[in-house]
Write a sequence for this structure.
């Protein structure tokens, strides 16, 4: 089974609890106003990887607490990500998933892939980014409507409250910046005259 991947980071500390392997999936139908991840909207194949290829990469990471799926819209590739999440949890690692959908809508659909991904997600963040409800007071999310759902007992609200929003900035060998985490990206772009290439939901 294959996943259309926008980007992978082997290790990040700003996309969920602890150090995490992070997968931005390619493709999102929502087109939220103010989205800073527009490069992930297209459904054209970007980097196609099998579940097993990604799982092998995850197994090589020595000190990660878990894996985060974001995008793009992870539930548009729920069959494959559900399978990957199942494998990730079998290693004792946690799974965090972001979605622009609402948990109740995902459950209502009774879609096999949705149910599999939900069954193997420890922490779900639901709700699309809403620029009219912009709020950076909670970790990893950018608007007030977004909700944390503790789908297993792996995490609790006390765990979440230990974290604050932070950014990581990477410069690759060609001089391109990759910025991830959560912050006021409009302000950063304006202040630094940067093109922020992509961020999460
Ligand atoms: S904010 Fe998230 S859900 Fe909304 S368009 Fe961007 S990637 Fe899609």
């Amino acid at each position: 089974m294959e996943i259309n991947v926008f980007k992978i980071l082997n290790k990040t500390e700003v996309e969920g609890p602890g150090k995490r392997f992070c997968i931005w999936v390619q493709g999102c139908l929502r087109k939220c106003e103010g989205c800073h991840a527009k490069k992930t909207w297209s459904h054209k194949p970007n980097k196609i990887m099998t579940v097993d290829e990604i799982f092998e990469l995850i197994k090589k990471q020595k000190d990660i607490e878990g894996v985060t799926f974001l995008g793009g819209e992870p539930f548009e590739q729920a069959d494959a990500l559900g399978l990957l999440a199942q494998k990730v949890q079998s290693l004792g690692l946690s799974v965090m998933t972001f979605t622009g959908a609402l948990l109740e809508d995902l459950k209502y659909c009774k879609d096999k892939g949705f149910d599999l991904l939900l069954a193997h997600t420890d922490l779900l963040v639901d709700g699309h980014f809403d620029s009219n409800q912009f709020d950076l007071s909670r970790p990893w999310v950018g608007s007030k409507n977004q909700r944390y759902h503790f789908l297993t007992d792996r995490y609790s609200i006390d765990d979440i409250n230990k974290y604050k929003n932070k950014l990581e900035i990477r410069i690759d060998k060609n001089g391109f910046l990759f910025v991830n985490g959560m912050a006021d990206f409009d302000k950063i772009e304006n202040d630094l005259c940067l093109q922020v290439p992509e961020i999460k939901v």
The chain has six helices and nine strands. The chain has one domain: 2-165. Confidence is low (pLDDT under 50) at residues 195-201. Residues 2-165 form a domain with the TIM Barrel fold (CATH 3.20.20.70).
